[in-house]
Amino acid sequence: MIRKLIEFSAHNRWFVIIIVVAAVAYATYAVRSIPLDAIPDLSDTQVIIYSRWDRSPDIIEDQVTYPIISSLLGAPRIKDIRGLSDYGFSYVYVIFTDGTDLYWARSRVLEYLSTIQGSLPEGVTTEIGPDATGVGWVYQYVLVDKSGTHGAADLRAYQDWTLKYALQSVPGVAEVATVGGFEKQYQVTVDPNRLSAYGISITEIIGAVRRNNNEGGGRLIEWSGKEYMVRVKGYIRELDDLRNIVVGEKEGTPILLGHVASVALGPQMRRGIADFNGLGEVTGGIVVIRHGENALNVIERVKERIRELEPSLPRGVEIVPVYDRSELIRRAIDTLTGELIVEMIIVSLMIIFFLRHFPSAMVPILTIPVAVLLAFIPMYLAGISSNIMSLAGIAISIGVLVDGAIVEVENAYKKIE
Prior knowledge:
By secondary structure, the protein is an alpha+beta fold. Among the domains are: 112 residues, Multidrug efflux transporter AcrB transmembrane fold (Up-down Bundle), CATH 1.20.1640.10; 89 residues, 2-Layer Sandwich (Alpha-Beta Plaits), CATH 3.30.70.1430; 83 residues, Multidrug efflux transporter AcrB TolC docking domain, DN and DC subdomains (2-Layer Sandwich), CATH 3.30.2090.
């Protein structure tokens, strides 16, 4: 069989050349299309359900986590469901069988989750995690204030309301998670003695604040040939707006929020901080890419967007990268390229030295890179990404290619002699 194949190739050289050129062209397309990353994604297909509710862990377990898990037990292709309840939040990890498409899994979770939403307690906020995997963390940065004029709250506000949305709009980015800083909030500290004296409950305070932080609209009024829009402005914009909210009345006199509580600006309670090289607390962000995206291309697009945003940064603030996976990806590619070049040079020199026949040295120079390129075709068809593990396998196999090329060239040379 092999002899007939060799004989056919020898008598139909142009046909073989055309086939090889076509295969190399398709392999080049496969190399450009394969997702490029440094770390292989060996994680299960999973969807994370995150719920927030300001209650103790046992209540969250009984009224949030357990009902969500129970509603998902009948979903197809689910291998395992794990729940975690803590103060103020609940995590449910839904793990699917191998080979399940991530977006199909997310749609099934949303479908079954919609059946339980109405029975969850009031105030529970439930959402699913981003369409990413465990190796989606590809880039991280911090905001460094060299002028010393911006506080942690200011940097956090800029990150949450400007920089985060600008980077999330980059194609291929699933989420930009904020770390460090603290969220600015209005804090209302109620005096229980004053509440008792005025006969007002804490529920009335909460309801009054909620009702008075709102805007309303009426209809259009035509007057003297012009149309006027009726609008009620009611959003809270400063502390006095909050202090002047009417929470009740006594003998015809309105009772304001400032009469029964102190109002101030302060940070939301934090459970951690972000430190940069021991220099102090900073605010930053973590860029997570979507499932199946080319990590190197997404990182380059993120860097380009950051360069576009640098002129609009607050005075004295710089974006400093602290983790960039593209460096690891490029080192992996450079390693494979270097191995190819070194192997081709060594094999060619050895063939020229021992056989003293220069045309024979062209065999490994051509066959090794062509064989490496053709290896990407089955990877592309099987959906395998190009990463350290797969590239290392190709680099190791170069030794086998070298041995085969040397043996074939030497054997053919002796037969010709």
